[in-house]
């Protein structure tokens, strides 16, 4: 038992003699896991009435012979050409209303009965044939679900979904505020998908009716989920091996929280958009871990070298692959897998990074780094496998708020939900706080601090549960635009921040906005001046004390940041940040909130040095990771054994972390 190490392998693209070379090379890198058959539909089922498993049989047999752990896909990540040709309705219709023909891979309408039937049939046949395969560790359904369809089949399914959600046409009209612009519907059949032909202009985020578009986003996420569930049900008839699909971190089109219950384990593909994205990756890891109540997750894909999907694709610098992989393990990953094990010879991913390049070399820098990491994971063995990640801070992440905040008119379209969330997470990360990223529906018991950036849309009893956190002595931190709309995306008919007003002790009188680059200085405790931007809410305290004030414009000297103690000095605190503070400002506020609970970590003052902990059966494993541009020295916070070298560490020892360096300390009890 150990952290699984390997990745996507496509032997169907290569003659048998190449397989032998590959397995010999992969053995040198301590690779022990292969994901097979992700895009195999066209050769497994050459026509509707024919199944041919001979090639996959040989591929699986060779993996078994190699002693590999196997992740077996249902092969439904892309349609075969014959299916799109014989049943054109399985091809998607895009946002502009154009029916697509065959091509690419995210190309199936999730509402198509033909697609749903044939994909589930294929999944079932694969499961029946390979359920007893030795070392089969997971089933991989589909691949990177995403996109959207606006065809007549989806329109009909949308109407069914709406009828189930709202029950009556009157409730639908109420939810959508349909008295506006003469939109009262008198029959379900009058409802059409919101796209460029109906409610939208200037793209998917400009809509006349946010409620309609919000519901279509919810519906499309659910439609793809139902297709996933079809395939999982077919597998479950013959196998109880865990079922997953590969998510994509902070990915806008799919509400992963709504999918979470259907996954046996969470997995995701880690392709950060730049070279200095360590806090963003940590956030995504914690988001994926939070899908299953803190259970370990898998990194299903990462690249050993470069991606192949951007305008400029730099290689990972020396040591970065190892550092980012250990970061994943530190945040709860029980598998570190690649796309891909051998580089494809043609098509759009022929230059995407791989463990083995086109020449199959094992003497390259990138292969040596893959092999070094493999040997370390092998030597570590089962030590952290299954270990949990303790946290006393919860950060709320909400797809509904993301969707609603980015398609509203009247405020500032330069504000992006993930950027606001990342700003607050980054401050928590740099402060060394253990964080669980959870949905707004999660229990908040056991958390001392709850951070809810841009909690724009309030659903269920979240306002009451946030008040309970403060009532029992905890701290709440939220930001501008929070508490503005209900679950239907209709404004609360009360002072902003709506139901959050009583606990926050403040009301928003006006909301000013500015173009990027325009700043208003906000003075915070200790004389720190933060260059705030984009959003400037004019706050009127209703019991809250002023913590930060604006320095410019007609509202100079008025509150920008407040703190409320609604239950007196012995109760908790509720912080409200009414503007877009810069990183220093967010960091100052976050540290003041954490400091009240003693949650600032031992390495918080070392910039870009990450400290993370996993715990199993009372054993604590501390990870120290150096993301800084050079070496750093730290004082050991605890005594124990450094597992990657075997050396003894005493509390207070000076530890040197080279650039991209990693230390893993098994702490003494």
From TrEMBL:
Q: Where is the Beta-galactosidase trimerisation domain?
A: 391-599
Please list the residue ranges annotated as the Beta-galactosidase C-terminal domain. 613-663
Annotated InterPro entries: Beta_galactosidase_C, Beta_galactosidase_Trimer, Class_I_gatase-like, GH, Glyco_hydro_42, Glyco_hydro_42_N, Glyco_hydro_b
**Which positions does UniProt annotate for Zn(2+) binding?**
109, 149, 151, 154
What's its EC? 3.2.1.23
Question: Which GO terms fall under biological process for this protein?
Answer: galactose metabolic process
Residue positions of the active site: 144 (proton donor), 301 (nucleophile)
One term under GO cellular component: beta-galactosidase complex
Its UniProt entry gives the catalysed reaction(s) as: Hydrolysis of terminal non-reducing beta-D-galactose residues in beta-D-galactosides
GO MF annotations, alphabetized: beta-galactosidase activity; metal ion binding
Q: Does the keyword Hydrolase apply?
A: yes
Q: Which Pfam families match?
A: Glyco_hydro_42, Glyco_hydro_42C, Glyco_hydro_42M
Q: Which residues form the Glycoside hydrolase family 42 N-terminal domain?
A: 8-379
Write out the residues that bind substrate. 105, 143
Which keywords does this Swiss-Prot/TrEMBL entry list? Glycosidase, Hydrolase, Metal-binding, Zinc
Superkingdom field:
Bacteria
Protein family according to the UniProt entry: Belongs to the glycosyl hydrolase 42 family.
Its recorded name reads Beta-galactosidase
